[in-house]
Fold these 3 entries.
Entry 1:
Amino acid sequence: MVLLLGASLAVVVFFVRDPVGRHWWRTGVAPGLAALGLGIAVVLVLFNYRYLTGTRSVLVNGLTLLIPVALAGGAGRFLWLRSRDSEAVRAVDPSGAAG
């Protein structure tokens, strides 16, 4: 669900930056509504994860902490790569929009 949320946000951001071929519904409203709905769903899942798993195990219910840890790790890796090896960043983002 978090990946779907990220994809919806990526579509909106991409077409805000590059409006060529943009259609108000397909590239703006629909992905925006999807991101809103998925964001609400992710919050509900995270707050009610104990009921979804059916357990009070700290280990099982602590798995939700992996999401922000993975996001922070990915962002940290990107910032480290950008400061040390700009060629690697350009290989991923040839437009240079990522910094």
Entry 2:
Amino acid sequence: MRHLHTGGDLRIGEFGSCGVAASLANAVYSATGVRDDPLTLYTLLEQMQALA
């Protein structure tokens, strides 16, 4: 069996997590109206206070 990664594993689980960050950012935007990149708790709270 040919390994795709030098660590010896195939790293197949990485393909399933590609859309997680985008989905999370869209959920935060839908719930709060805040869209920022990178999305951190500090920037989220800061922008939510500015909207209030």
Entry 3:
Amino acid sequence: MTFSDETPLDDSGLPPRVVRILKSGNFATVGDLRAASDGELLRTRGFGNRAFYEVRKRFPNPDPEMAEIYREIYGWDI
């Protein structure tokens, strides 16, 4: 399923807990997630590796080199 940048986080398919954490960090839409750096996401209070994985699995970092880094560091195939 594809989501436009204007899609609210509530409609993004992310787990409710992750949505609550992201909203507390002033993320409101899928576009906010796509535009956010990994550092911005990980600095969000309560946002850990599992939440990071859920977000990047659905909304990958646009930098193709990051997919390789995720594989090497985390063992994730995103």
